[in-house]
Amino acid sequence: MERMLNNKVYIETYGCQMNLADTEIVMGVLQNQGYTITKQADDADVVLLNTCSVRDNAEQRIYGRLGNLKTLKYTKPGVVIGILGCMAERLRKDLIEEKKMVDLVVGPDEYRRLPEYIDTAFNGEKGIGVRLSKTETYDDIIPYREDGLQAWISVMRGCDKFCTFCVVPFTRGRERSRNLNSIVQEVQQLSNRGFKEVTLLGQNVNSYFDEGTDFADLLAASAQVDRTLRIRFTTSHPQDISDKLLHTISEHSNICNYIHLPVQSGSNKILELMNRTYTVEHYLNIIEKARKIIPGVSFSTDIIAGFPAETLEDHLMTIDLMQQVRYDGAFMFKYSPREGTKAYKMDDDVAEETKAKRLQQIIDLQQQISFEINQGQIGSDEIILIEGFSRKSDQFYSGRTDTNKIVIVPADSSITIGDYVKTKINKATSGTLFGSFEGIIDPQKESLSLTA
Ligand code: SAH
Ligand code: SF4
Ligand code: F3S
Predict the structure, then answer these.
(1) Residue 286 and which of 19, 59, 123, 320 are 20 to 30 A apart at CA?
(2) Residue nearest to atom 3 of ligand 3 (CA)
(3) Could you tell me if 319 and 424 lie in one domain?
(4) 389 in the same domain as 356
(5) Mutate to test the pocket of ligand 1, among 53, 90, 155, 166 (most ligand atoms within 8 A of CB)
(6) How would residue 447 be classed by pLDDT, with cut points 50, 70 and 90?
(7) Model confidence pLDDT, tens digit, residues 25-60
(8) Is residue 446 part of a domain?
Protein backbone atom coordinates (compact mmCIF):
# COMPACT_ATOMS: atom_id res chain seq x y z
CA MET A 1 0.00 0.00 0.00
CA GLU A 2 1.35 3.43 -0.88
CA ARG A 3 1.37 6.11 1.71
CA MET A 4 -1.41 8.60 1.11
CA LEU A 5 -2.21 11.92 2.64
CA ASN A 6 -4.27 11.53 5.73
CA ASN A 7 -3.10 8.11 6.76
CA LYS A 8 -4.42 7.17 10.16
CA VAL A 9 -2.26 5.98 13.02
CA TYR A 10 -3.29 4.19 16.19
CA ILE A 11 -0.96 3.81 19.21
CA GLU A 12 -1.21 1.81 22.42
CA THR A 13 1.19 2.59 25.22
CA TYR A 14 2.62 0.18 27.81
CA GLY A 15 5.19 0.63 30.58
CA CYS A 16 6.24 3.71 32.47
CA GLN A 17 5.30 7.38 32.23
CA MET A 18 8.28 7.95 29.98
CA ASN A 19 6.60 5.81 27.38
CA LEU A 20 3.41 7.87 27.74
CA ALA A 21 5.47 11.00 27.14
CA ASP A 22 7.23 9.36 24.18
CA THR A 23 3.91 8.41 22.61
CA GLU A 24 3.02 12.12 22.59
CA ILE A 25 6.34 12.86 20.86
CA VAL A 26 5.66 10.12 18.30
CA MET A 27 2.19 11.52 17.62
CA GLY A 28 3.73 15.00 17.29
CA VAL A 29 6.24 13.70 14.71
CA LEU A 30 3.59 11.83 12.74
CA GLN A 31 1.09 14.65 12.79
CA ASN A 32 3.75 16.93 11.28
CA GLN A 33 3.91 14.47 8.40
CA GLY A 34 0.17 14.67 7.79
CA TYR A 35 -0.98 11.65 9.79
CA THR A 36 -4.16 11.80 11.77
CA ILE A 37 -4.54 10.05 15.11
CA THR A 38 -7.32 7.52 15.50
CA LYS A 39 -8.55 5.83 18.66
CA GLN A 40 -9.64 2.67 16.87
CA ALA A 41 -7.15 0.05 15.75
CA ASP A 42 -9.42 -1.29 13.00
CA ASP A 43 -9.70 2.17 11.48
CA ALA A 44 -5.91 2.65 11.25
CA ASP A 45 -3.37 2.28 8.43
CA VAL A 46 -0.56 2.10 10.97
CA VAL A 47 -0.92 0.33 14.32
CA LEU A 48 1.86 0.92 16.83
CA LEU A 49 2.54 -0.55 20.27
CA ASN A 50 4.89 1.47 22.46
CA THR A 51 6.31 -1.30 24.59
CA CYS A 52 8.02 -2.12 27.89
CA SER A 53 10.67 -4.76 28.65
CA VAL A 54 11.17 -4.23 32.35
CA ARG A 55 9.76 -7.61 33.42
CA ASP A 56 8.90 -10.76 31.51
CA ASN A 57 5.15 -10.38 32.10
CA ALA A 58 5.26 -6.92 30.45
CA GLU A 59 6.66 -8.53 27.31
CA GLN A 60 4.26 -11.47 27.41
CA ARG A 61 1.35 -9.03 27.37
CA ILE A 62 2.69 -7.44 24.20
CA TYR A 63 3.10 -10.81 22.49
CA GLY A 64 -0.49 -11.60 23.39
CA ARG A 65 -1.70 -8.29 22.01
CA LEU A 66 0.29 -8.77 18.78
CA GLY A 67 -1.44 -12.11 18.41
CA ASN A 68 -4.86 -10.45 18.35
CA LEU A 69 -3.76 -7.52 16.21
CA LYS A 70 -2.70 -9.95 13.49
CA THR A 71 -6.36 -10.43 12.60
CA LEU A 72 -6.36 -6.83 11.34
CA LYS A 73 -4.25 -8.08 8.44
CA TYR A 74 -7.08 -10.34 7.24
CA THR A 75 -9.41 -7.43 6.53
CA LYS A 76 -6.72 -4.89 5.64
CA PRO A 77 -3.60 -6.65 4.32
CA GLY A 78 -1.71 -3.36 3.84
CA VAL A 79 -1.91 -2.29 7.47
CA VAL A 80 1.50 -1.70 9.03
CA ILE A 81 1.95 -3.16 12.51
CA GLY A 82 4.91 -1.87 14.47
CA ILE A 83 6.71 -2.08 17.80
CA LEU A 84 8.15 1.05 19.40
CA GLY A 85 9.86 1.52 22.76
CA CYS A 86 11.96 -0.73 24.93
CA MET A 87 11.09 -4.11 23.37
CA ALA A 88 12.21 -2.76 20.03
CA GLU A 89 15.74 -2.52 21.39
CA ARG A 90 15.74 -5.84 23.18
CA LEU A 91 14.01 -8.06 20.67
CA ARG A 92 14.52 -6.57 17.24
CA LYS A 93 15.74 -9.84 15.67
CA ASP A 94 13.24 -11.99 17.42
CA LEU A 95 10.29 -9.81 16.44
CA ILE A 96 11.18 -9.34 12.81
CA GLU A 97 13.25 -12.34 11.73
CA GLU A 98 12.21 -15.22 13.92
CA LYS A 99 8.64 -14.57 14.92
CA LYS A 100 7.86 -12.50 11.80
CA MET A 101 5.24 -10.77 13.85
CA VAL A 102 5.65 -7.14 12.82
CA ASP A 103 6.51 -4.88 9.89
CA LEU A 104 8.26 -2.20 11.88
CA VAL A 105 10.58 -2.02 14.89
CA VAL A 106 11.68 1.43 16.04
CA GLY A 107 13.48 2.14 19.32
CA PRO A 108 13.19 5.15 21.66
CA ASP A 109 15.94 7.26 20.06
CA GLU A 110 14.76 6.92 16.44
CA TYR A 111 11.29 8.46 16.56
CA ARG A 112 12.33 11.45 14.45
CA ARG A 113 12.81 9.08 11.52
CA LEU A 114 9.68 7.04 12.20
CA PRO A 115 7.86 8.42 9.10
CA GLU A 116 10.70 7.10 6.89
CA TYR A 117 10.58 3.69 8.52
CA ILE A 118 6.82 3.58 8.07
CA ASP A 119 7.30 4.41 4.37
CA THR A 120 9.75 1.53 4.11
CA ALA A 121 7.14 -0.76 5.63
CA PHE A 122 4.42 0.54 3.29
CA ASN A 123 6.75 -0.38 0.43
CA GLY A 124 6.84 -3.97 1.61
CA GLU A 125 10.17 -4.04 3.42
CA LYS A 126 10.81 -4.15 7.13
CA GLY A 127 11.26 -0.74 8.77
CA ILE A 128 13.99 -1.08 11.37
CA GLY A 129 15.45 1.77 13.42
CA VAL A 130 17.05 0.72 16.66
CA ARG A 131 20.15 2.86 17.03
CA LEU A 132 20.53 4.48 20.44
CA SER A 133 21.80 8.04 20.63
CA LYS A 134 24.01 9.85 23.12
CA THR A 135 22.34 13.19 22.42
CA GLU A 136 18.72 12.82 21.26
CA THR A 137 16.28 14.59 23.62
CA TYR A 138 13.54 15.59 21.11
CA ASP A 139 14.06 19.09 22.41
CA ASP A 140 12.43 20.80 19.44
CA ILE A 141 9.56 18.35 18.87
CA ILE A 142 6.20 19.62 20.01
CA PRO A 143 4.38 16.66 21.58
CA TYR A 144 0.79 16.01 20.58
CA ARG A 145 -1.31 16.60 23.68
CA GLU A 146 -5.05 16.75 24.05
CA ASP A 147 -6.32 19.47 26.36
CA GLY A 148 -6.36 18.38 29.96
CA LEU A 149 -5.09 19.05 33.44
CA GLN A 150 -1.97 16.95 33.67
CA ALA A 151 1.00 16.71 31.36
CA TRP A 152 4.37 14.91 31.34
CA ILE A 153 7.69 16.27 30.18
CA SER A 154 10.73 14.03 29.82
CA VAL A 155 13.61 16.14 31.10
CA MET A 156 16.25 13.49 30.65
CA ARG A 157 16.55 10.23 28.79
CA GLY A 158 18.48 7.01 29.32
CA CYS A 159 20.16 5.70 32.45
CA ASP A 160 23.79 5.18 33.46
CA LYS A 161 23.19 3.45 36.78
CA PHE A 162 23.26 -0.14 35.57
CA CYS A 163 21.41 -1.69 38.47
CA THR A 164 22.19 -5.35 37.88
CA PHE A 165 18.54 -6.43 37.42
CA CYS A 166 17.48 -3.71 35.01
CA VAL A 167 17.16 -3.55 31.21
CA VAL A 168 16.61 0.20 31.01
CA PRO A 169 20.28 1.18 30.40
CA PHE A 170 20.23 -1.25 27.46
CA THR A 171 16.86 -0.24 26.01
CA ARG A 172 17.17 3.50 26.57
CA GLY A 173 20.91 4.07 26.24
CA ARG A 174 23.09 6.65 27.94
CA GLU A 175 21.91 9.41 30.21
CA ARG A 176 21.37 12.83 28.65
CA SER A 177 19.46 15.92 29.74
CA ARG A 178 17.22 18.23 27.83
CA ASN A 179 17.94 21.97 27.71
CA LEU A 180 16.56 23.82 30.73
CA ASN A 181 15.18 26.81 28.84
CA SER A 182 13.26 24.68 26.41
CA ILE A 183 11.70 22.70 29.28
CA VAL A 184 10.70 25.91 31.05
CA GLN A 185 9.16 27.22 27.81
CA GLU A 186 7.14 24.04 27.49
CA VAL A 187 5.90 24.45 31.07
CA GLN A 188 4.85 27.99 30.14
CA GLN A 189 2.95 26.76 27.08
CA LEU A 190 1.17 24.15 29.19
CA SER A 191 0.22 26.81 31.71
CA ASN A 192 -1.12 29.02 28.91
CA ARG A 193 -3.24 26.11 27.70
CA GLY A 194 -4.81 25.70 31.15
CA PHE A 195 -2.90 22.65 32.40
CA LYS A 196 -2.73 22.46 36.21
CA GLU A 197 -0.06 19.85 36.82
CA VAL A 198 3.20 18.97 35.10
CA THR A 199 5.32 15.92 35.96
CA LEU A 200 9.02 16.13 35.09
CA LEU A 201 10.23 12.68 34.07
CA GLY A 202 13.47 10.76 33.95
CA GLN A 203 14.74 7.35 35.09
CA ASN A 204 16.91 9.23 37.53
CA VAL A 205 15.93 12.90 37.54
CA ASN A 206 18.46 13.79 40.21
CA SER A 207 21.29 13.39 37.75
CA TYR A 208 19.75 16.04 35.45
CA PHE A 209 22.47 18.43 34.34
CA ASP A 210 22.45 21.28 31.83
CA GLU A 211 25.27 23.82 31.58
CA GLY A 212 25.91 24.24 35.29
CA THR A 213 22.27 23.84 36.36
CA ASP A 214 21.03 20.79 38.24
CA PHE A 215 17.65 19.22 38.87
CA ALA A 216 16.88 21.48 41.84
CA ASP A 217 17.44 24.50 39.55
CA LEU A 218 15.16 23.00 36.93
CA LEU A 219 12.44 22.33 39.52
CA ALA A 220 12.69 25.88 40.86
CA ALA A 221 12.59 27.38 37.36
CA SER A 222 9.57 25.25 36.44
CA ALA A 223 7.76 26.17 39.66
CA GLN A 224 8.32 29.88 39.04
CA VAL A 225 6.55 29.80 35.68
CA ASP A 226 3.10 29.72 37.24
CA ARG A 227 2.41 29.48 40.97
CA THR A 228 -0.99 27.93 40.29
CA LEU A 229 0.56 25.04 38.37
CA ARG A 230 1.65 22.02 40.40
CA ILE A 231 5.01 20.46 39.64
CA ARG A 232 5.68 16.76 40.25
CA PHE A 233 8.73 14.69 39.36
CA THR A 234 9.80 11.08 39.14
CA THR A 235 12.01 9.03 39.62
CA SER A 236 14.60 9.99 42.25
CA HIS A 237 17.55 7.70 42.86
CA PRO A 238 18.54 7.60 46.54
CA GLN A 239 22.22 8.05 45.77
CA ASP A 240 21.92 11.50 44.21
CA ILE A 241 19.22 13.20 46.26
CA SER A 242 20.73 16.47 47.51
CA ASP A 243 19.91 18.79 50.41
CA LYS A 244 19.48 21.52 47.83
CA LEU A 245 16.75 19.49 46.15
CA LEU A 246 14.93 18.93 49.46
CA HIS A 247 15.11 22.64 50.28
CA THR A 248 13.85 23.53 46.80
CA ILE A 249 10.81 21.30 47.26
CA SER A 250 10.15 22.83 50.65
CA GLU A 251 10.52 26.44 49.46
CA HIS A 252 8.00 26.25 46.59
CA SER A 253 4.39 25.65 47.59
CA ASN A 254 3.55 24.38 44.09
CA ILE A 255 6.26 21.69 44.05
CA CYS A 256 4.41 18.68 45.41
CA ASN A 257 5.49 17.22 48.75
CA TYR A 258 5.82 13.76 47.36
CA ILE A 259 8.94 11.76 46.57
CA HIS A 260 9.03 8.42 44.80
CA LEU A 261 12.24 6.92 46.15
CA PRO A 262 12.71 3.30 45.08
CA VAL A 263 14.58 1.30 47.71
CA GLN A 264 14.35 -2.18 46.07
CA SER A 265 15.53 -4.05 49.20
CA GLY A 266 16.15 -3.56 52.91
CA SER A 267 19.30 -5.70 52.94
CA ASN A 268 22.72 -4.15 52.32
CA LYS A 269 23.97 -7.44 50.90
CA ILE A 270 21.19 -7.43 48.28
CA LEU A 271 21.58 -3.70 47.57
CA GLU A 272 25.21 -4.36 46.80
CA LEU A 273 24.40 -7.29 44.51
CA MET A 274 21.91 -5.00 42.80
CA ASN A 275 24.58 -2.29 42.37
CA ARG A 276 22.23 0.26 43.93
CA THR A 277 25.23 2.22 45.33
CA TYR A 278 23.63 3.14 48.68
CA THR A 279 23.13 1.41 52.01
CA VAL A 280 20.00 1.08 54.10
CA GLU A 281 21.55 3.53 56.59
CA HIS A 282 22.16 6.14 53.88
CA TYR A 283 18.62 5.65 52.59
CA LEU A 284 17.01 6.05 56.04
CA ASN A 285 19.11 9.11 56.61
CA ILE A 286 17.65 10.73 53.47
CA ILE A 287 14.11 9.92 54.59
CA GLU A 288 14.75 11.43 58.00
CA LYS A 289 16.30 14.55 56.52
CA ALA A 290 13.51 14.98 53.97
CA ARG A 291 10.89 14.71 56.71
CA LYS A 292 12.64 17.47 58.65
CA ILE A 293 13.09 19.79 55.69
CA ILE A 294 9.68 19.15 54.06
CA PRO A 295 6.95 18.88 56.71
CA GLY A 296 4.22 16.47 55.63
CA VAL A 297 6.24 14.95 52.77
CA SER A 298 4.97 11.59 51.54
CA PHE A 299 7.04 8.75 50.12
CA SER A 300 6.44 5.89 47.78
CA THR A 301 8.88 3.21 46.71
CA ASP A 302 9.61 0.21 44.49
CA ILE A 303 10.50 -3.15 46.02
CA ILE A 304 11.73 -6.33 44.37
CA ALA A 305 11.04 -9.66 46.09
CA GLY A 306 13.24 -12.69 45.50
CA PHE A 307 16.39 -11.22 43.96
CA PRO A 308 19.19 -13.85 43.57
CA ALA A 309 20.71 -14.91 46.91
CA GLU A 310 17.90 -13.28 48.92
CA THR A 311 17.54 -15.29 52.14
CA LEU A 312 14.66 -15.20 54.57
CA GLU A 313 16.80 -12.92 56.70
CA ASP A 314 17.27 -10.46 53.80
CA HIS A 315 13.54 -10.52 53.14
CA LEU A 316 12.82 -9.77 56.81
CA MET A 317 15.17 -6.79 56.56
CA THR A 318 12.97 -5.45 53.74
CA ILE A 319 9.91 -5.92 55.94
CA ASP A 320 11.73 -4.16 58.75
CA LEU A 321 12.69 -1.24 56.50
CA MET A 322 9.07 -0.86 55.36
CA GLN A 323 8.00 -0.71 58.99
CA GLN A 324 10.61 1.93 59.74
CA VAL A 325 9.85 4.17 56.76
CA ARG A 326 6.09 3.61 56.59
CA TYR A 327 5.66 4.46 52.92
CA ASP A 328 2.44 6.03 51.74
CA GLY A 329 2.50 3.67 48.77
CA ALA A 330 4.66 1.11 47.01
CA PHE A 331 5.06 -0.69 43.69
CA MET A 332 6.08 -4.25 44.47
CA PHE A 333 7.43 -6.84 42.06
CA LYS A 334 8.73 -10.36 41.87
CA TYR A 335 12.28 -10.47 40.52
CA SER A 336 12.24 -11.25 36.80
CA PRO A 337 15.57 -12.23 35.20
CA ARG A 338 16.37 -10.15 32.10
CA GLU A 339 18.79 -11.42 29.51
CA GLY A 340 21.82 -9.21 29.04
CA THR A 341 21.84 -7.82 32.57
CA LYS A 342 24.47 -8.72 35.18
CA ALA A 343 21.93 -10.35 37.46
CA TYR A 344 20.95 -12.68 34.62
CA LYS A 345 24.26 -14.44 35.15
CA MET A 346 23.58 -14.86 38.87
CA ASP A 347 21.82 -17.97 40.05
CA ASP A 348 18.07 -17.20 40.17
CA ASP A 349 17.95 -19.32 43.29
CA VAL A 350 14.84 -18.13 45.12
CA ALA A 351 12.11 -20.65 44.33
CA GLU A 352 9.09 -19.27 42.48
CA GLU A 353 6.86 -20.21 45.41
CA THR A 354 9.10 -18.37 47.85
CA LYS A 355 9.20 -15.29 45.64
CA ALA A 356 5.42 -15.28 45.45
CA LYS A 357 5.08 -15.72 49.21
CA ARG A 358 7.53 -12.93 50.02
CA LEU A 359 5.88 -10.61 47.52
CA GLN A 360 2.49 -11.28 49.10
CA GLN A 361 3.85 -10.51 52.57
CA ILE A 362 5.26 -7.25 51.30
CA ILE A 363 1.99 -6.32 49.60
CA ASP A 364 -0.08 -7.18 52.69
CA LEU A 365 2.19 -5.15 54.95
CA GLN A 366 2.08 -2.14 52.62
CA GLN A 367 -1.70 -2.34 52.44
CA GLN A 368 -1.86 -2.34 56.24
CA ILE A 369 0.54 0.62 56.52
CA SER A 370 -1.29 2.64 53.84
CA PHE A 371 -4.56 1.97 55.66
CA GLU A 372 -3.15 3.14 58.99
CA ILE A 373 -1.57 6.25 57.50
CA ASN A 374 -4.82 7.15 55.74
CA GLN A 375 -6.88 6.54 58.89
CA GLY A 376 -4.53 8.96 60.62
CA GLN A 377 -5.54 11.62 58.09
CA ILE A 378 -9.14 11.65 59.30
CA GLY A 379 -9.99 15.07 60.68
CA SER A 380 -7.24 16.84 58.76
CA ASP A 381 -7.66 19.48 56.05
CA GLU A 382 -6.25 18.97 52.57
CA ILE A 383 -6.11 20.96 49.36
CA ILE A 384 -6.91 18.85 46.32
CA LEU A 385 -6.89 19.48 42.60
CA ILE A 386 -10.21 18.30 41.19
CA GLU A 387 -9.41 15.92 38.32
CA GLY A 388 -12.87 14.71 37.32
CA PHE A 389 -15.88 12.78 38.49
CA SER A 390 -15.22 9.82 40.74
CA ARG A 391 -15.01 6.49 38.93
CA LYS A 392 -18.11 5.20 40.65
CA SER A 393 -20.54 8.11 40.51
CA ASP A 394 -20.97 11.59 39.10
CA GLN A 395 -22.40 12.64 42.45
CA PHE A 396 -18.75 12.85 43.56
CA TYR A 397 -15.56 14.44 42.33
CA SER A 398 -12.15 12.87 42.54
CA GLY A 399 -9.11 14.98 43.34
CA ARG A 400 -5.53 14.54 44.45
CA THR A 401 -3.56 15.97 47.35
CA ASP A 402 -0.08 17.29 46.70
CA THR A 403 1.12 14.17 48.56
CA ASN A 404 -0.47 12.20 45.69
CA LYS A 405 -3.46 10.73 47.52
CA ILE A 406 -6.85 10.43 45.89
CA VAL A 407 -9.70 12.19 47.73
CA ILE A 408 -13.38 11.79 46.88
CA VAL A 409 -15.61 14.80 47.67
CA PRO A 410 -19.31 15.51 47.03
CA ALA A 411 -19.90 17.16 43.63
CA ASP A 412 -20.87 20.60 44.91
CA SER A 413 -22.32 22.70 42.10
CA SER A 414 -19.76 25.46 42.66
CA ILE A 415 -16.85 23.13 41.82
CA THR A 416 -15.38 22.96 38.30
CA ILE A 417 -12.87 20.36 37.14
CA GLY A 418 -9.41 21.91 37.51
CA ASP A 419 -10.30 23.82 40.70
CA TYR A 420 -8.25 23.60 43.86
CA VAL A 421 -10.63 22.71 46.66
CA LYS A 422 -10.26 22.58 50.43
CA THR A 423 -11.57 19.40 52.03
CA LYS A 424 -11.74 17.89 55.52
CA ILE A 425 -11.04 14.14 55.51
CA ASN A 426 -13.78 12.09 57.19
CA LYS A 427 -13.22 8.52 55.97
CA ALA A 428 -10.33 6.48 54.59
CA THR A 429 -9.43 3.14 53.04
CA SER A 430 -5.92 1.95 52.13
CA GLY A 431 -6.23 3.48 48.67
CA THR A 432 -8.65 6.40 48.96
CA LEU A 433 -9.57 9.28 51.24
CA PHE A 434 -13.07 10.75 51.47
CA GLY A 435 -13.72 14.32 52.51
CA SER A 436 -16.25 17.11 52.80
CA PHE A 437 -16.27 20.18 50.56
CA GLU A 438 -14.97 23.15 52.54
CA GLY A 439 -14.59 25.73 49.81
CA ILE A 440 -12.70 26.66 46.69
CA ILE A 441 -9.12 27.91 46.95
CA ASP A 442 -8.06 30.91 44.90
CA PRO A 443 -4.58 29.80 43.84
CA GLN A 444 -3.63 33.35 42.84
CA LYS A 445 -4.03 34.47 46.44
CA GLU A 446 -3.74 31.35 48.59
CA SER A 447 -0.94 28.80 48.95
CA LEU A 448 -1.44 25.41 47.28
CA SER A 449 0.09 23.67 50.27
CA LEU A 450 -1.27 23.77 53.81
CA THR A 451 2.11 22.82 55.23
CA ALA A 452 4.16 25.42 53.36
N1 SAH B 1 14.54 4.35 37.28
C2 SAH B 1 13.72 3.88 38.28
C3 SAH B 1 12.97 2.62 38.02
C4 SAH B 1 12.73 2.11 36.67
S5 SAH B 1 12.00 0.53 36.51
C6 SAH B 1 14.56 3.67 39.51
O7 SAH B 1 15.75 3.49 39.43
O8 SAH B 1 14.03 3.61 40.55
C9 SAH B 1 10.73 0.53 37.74
C10 SAH B 1 10.88 -0.53 38.76
O11 SAH B 1 10.75 -1.80 38.19
C12 SAH B 1 12.22 -0.57 39.47
O13 SAH B 1 12.33 0.37 40.47
C14 SAH B 1 12.24 -1.98 40.00
O15 SAH B 1 11.65 -2.06 41.28
C16 SAH B 1 11.39 -2.75 39.01
N17 SAH B 1 12.21 -3.62 38.18
C18 SAH B 1 13.14 -3.27 37.27
N19 SAH B 1 13.72 -4.37 36.73
C20 SAH B 1 13.14 -5.45 37.32
C21 SAH B 1 13.30 -6.86 37.21
N22 SAH B 1 14.21 -7.38 36.38
N23 SAH B 1 12.50 -7.66 37.96
C24 SAH B 1 11.59 -7.13 38.80
N25 SAH B 1 11.41 -5.81 38.96
C26 SAH B 1 12.17 -4.97 38.23
FE1 SF4 C 1 17.04 0.72 36.02
FE2 SF4 C 1 18.58 1.36 38.06
FE3 SF4 C 1 18.47 2.97 35.95
FE4 SF4 C 1 16.39 2.76 37.58
S5 SF4 C 1 18.40 3.58 38.11
S6 SF4 C 1 16.36 2.71 35.35
S7 SF4 C 1 16.43 0.63 38.17
S8 SF4 C 1 19.30 0.90 35.98
FE1 F3S D 1 9.49 -0.25 30.64
FE2 F3S D 1 11.20 0.97 29.14
FE3 F3S D 1 9.83 2.31 30.93
S4 F3S D 1 11.47 -1.02 30.01
S5 F3S D 1 9.56 0.81 32.53
S6 F3S D 1 9.01 1.31 29.18
S7 F3S D 1 11.92 2.67 30.34
Answers:
(1) 19
(2) 16
(3) no
(4) no
(5) 166
(6) confident
(7) 999 999 999 999 999 999 999 999 999 999 999 999
(8) no
